[in-house]
Amino acid sequence: LQFTEEKLGQAEKTELDAHFENLLARADCTKNWTEKILRQTEVLLQPNPSARVEEFLYEKLDRKVPSRVTNGELLAQYMTEAANDFGPGTPYGKTLIKVGETQRRLGAAEREFIRSASINFLTPLRNFLEGDWRTIS
Q: Record's PROSITE patterns (predicted)?
């Protein structure tokens, strides 16, 4: 009621002390930067916008996001299939098998990084924005 009357000019504006104004400014700055960092981290972890929308919908519907093959794992699969076509005994086939196995491990490490970053970094940021920030505001 006080806020509405202040906006309509029917009541005198409540003056806040400088310390409280400083806290409000810091809280707004924290919220804005947290939102930017959260969005950019999501872009880094999943550069495909349509895949991000799909993951968002799964999350909002409380369903498990289907596991995706990373680009590294897909490249490893192609290399292994090509090595089998060329023959694992040929120099090119041997090389493709070695590089494909390394690429598979890199893809698995990428998948683990994405999972770990989502759980240990993005979840606390979301919890702040959805829980703590509402309490602050």
A: BAR
pTM more than 0.70:
yes
**Contact criterion met (CB below 8 Å) for 111 and 70:** yes
Phi-psi category of residue 16: left, alpha or beta, with phi > 0 → left and psi -120 to 50 → alpha: beta
124: pLDDT strictly greater than 90:
yes
Q: Which of 44, 27, 46 is nearest to 128 (CA)?
A: 27
Question: Phi and psi dihedrals of 113, rounded to 5?
Answer: -60, -45
Would you put residue 14 in left (φ > 0), alpha (ψ -120 to 50) or beta?
A: beta
For residue 69 the two structure tokens come to 């093959």
**Tens of pLDDT, residues 19-38:** 988 998 999 999 999 999 99
Query: What CATH class does 41-136 carry?
Result: mainly alpha
| Residues written for the chain | 137
